[in-house]
Design goal:
- The protein has one domain (4-168): Nucleotidyltransferase, domain 5 (2-Layer Sandwich).
- It contains 5 helices and 6 strands.
- The chain has helices at residues 4-9, 52-65, 83-94, 107-116, 154-168, and strands spanning 11-22, 25-34, 39-45, 76-79, 101-104, 120-122.
- Strand 3 (39-45), helix 2 (52-65) and strand 4 (76-79) form a beta-alpha-beta unit.
- The longest helix has 15 residues, at 154-168.
- Bound molecules: zinc ion.
- Zinc ion is lined by residues 30, 41, 139-140, 142-143, 153-155.
Length: 169
Amino acid sequence: MESINDKLEKIACVIDIQGYSLHGKFYARELSIVNDEICSTFNVDPEISLTDDSLNAIYYHYQRIHGLGLHPLKNVFIKNSTLEMFIRVITDMLTSEDKPYLAVKNHQLASLLDEWQIKYVNLESFEAPSVSQFTCRWMCDLHENKRPQMRRCALRKSISLWIWINQKI
Ligand SMILES: [Zn+2]
């Protein structure tokens, strides 16, 4: 049977997303990809149609969760509706026979990858550290609102998890 280390050694990169959970659906707003060669984070247009009953939830995410404004201000290459295609391209580009897996630690992203039937390693199963255990607390430049109590930056989480994987193997 494959050991934990065997599995971790087959990880090509870590990906993570942040966004908005509204009415049982997830809308991506930040996508990050990290390995030894790539360390990138992307604005994603969440393509949310505003309704009166979504305003409070959107404001809550902005003020309390991640501080990402609803409408990305610049460099928007990816939309929520093209996220699957983009992640498929990344998977094709970065994975190989030796390293066939993306790694994630994010139940919303894991559900999407399940739905799209994209192979991944779920770091929840490997006792990977949670966001609150990371010692660094910076947020990347995409976050307009950087209150000290907010911890959700997809780039910081991806980098921290990639470092953790490399310390384990
Ligand atoms: Zn970020």
